[in-house]
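EI: anyone free to look at a 138-residue chain?
SC: sure, send it
EI:
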Amino acid sequence: MNTLARADFPVLRPQQTRWSDNDVYGHVNNAAYYLWFDSTVNGWLMDTTGVDIRMLPAIGVVVETSCRFVHEVTFPDRLDIGLALEHRGRTSVRYRLGVFRDDLLCAHGQFVHVYVDPATRRPTQIPDLIGKALDTLA
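SC: here you go
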């Protein structure tokens, strides 16, 4: 799936690499990509809904992530993290993400939220406010 392009993502959020993202091998460490994915999804949800998503009647917990690295990223790269909806169920959402330096796909992956009741931690329906936000990704 290395043929993904910026146009495949309805949302692109800017991301600046940091000096501390680089590892001893001279490129951004793999853990930084997962932080970008998490920040992209949750930042977009908060911006789109206009609320602190931690205060909703159900919260999205991450149950799965993946990342395939295609091209090296380093400091001081300016990136865009692409966000798209891959699948929406009753209690879960699978996002597709892409890391771009200009038009070059550097990495891509998936990020899955399962919505749970904050007290019981049992799966529950995606909150309506989140559902309306997800509609804008479709």
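EI: The longest strand covers residues 104-116.
SC: 👍
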